[in-house]
Input
Amino acid sequence: MQKPNQYIYERPEPDTLPPTERGSMNYISYSGGKDSTAMLLRMVELDMDIADIVFFDGGWEFPQTYEHIFQVEKFIKRKITVIKPRDTFENFLKRWGWPNMFMRWCTTEKNNTLNKITKCWHQGIAADEINRVKKHKRKAHYPLIEWGWTERDCLNYCYERGFTWGGLYTHFRRVSCFCCPLKGVDEFRRLYKYYPDQWNELKRLDSISPKDFKGYKTVADLQTRFEAENMQLNLLGKKF
Ligand code: SF4
Output
C-alpha cells in the first residue's frame, strides 16, 4: 500500500478543537462510494467509536448506490443517518440550472448541511488522492490517508466483503450523482450505453434546467453525438 505523506494535511488533536467538537470526533461523512465504504467498514472492524454515520442524499444517486447503502447497514448492523438538502436538487436545478466548476451549488448545499452537525468529519479520501485534501479549508480526519489505502485498495477491500454496487465500478471510476455535469464525455457515453433509465432521467432533468448542459446545448445534443458515433462504428463492424 502507498505510504501516506503525513505532512500535507493537518490532523486535529481533540484538545485543539472547540469544546462542542471534542465529543464528536468520529462522525463519518458517508457517500456510499468505495472509499467511504472502505473507511467505514474498517473503522467498524477496528471497533472504533463512531458517533454517527451520515449520508447526505441529494436524490441524484444511482439506484445501485441506495441499494448498496442498505446492504452496508445490514452488514454493520447499524443505521446510517440520511440527511436531505433544505429543498430538492430538482427545485434547485429549476432555479439555478446545472452546477458547474464556478457554481457548484450542490456541494455548497451538502457542506452547509453537514456543517450543522459537526465541523470535523471523518472523510473517505484515499491516499492517492491526497491532493484533494490540500483544497479543504476545514479540519477533518482522513483515516484512509493515515492507513495509506489507495482507491484500488478500497475497492478491493469492499469487493472482498461482497459489495459490488451492481457493477457500477466496472463502468465508472467514481460513483456519484448519475447526472453530474462535471463528468467527462466518456462517462456520459457509458451512462448512455449501460444505464438507459438514468440517461432518460438526465434528459428529463435537462429539460427543466435554465442553463445549457456542459458545453452542449442539451443532453439530447450529446445523445445525437453518441448515436452518430454508434452508427459510424456499426459501419466499420465495431462495437459502440
Ligand atoms: S457529484 Fe456532481 S452533481 Fe453531485 S454533488 Fe458532486 S458536483 Fe454536484
About this structure: Residues 58, 60, 99, 104, 106-107, 176-177, 180, 182 surround iron/sulfur cluster (CB under 6 Å).
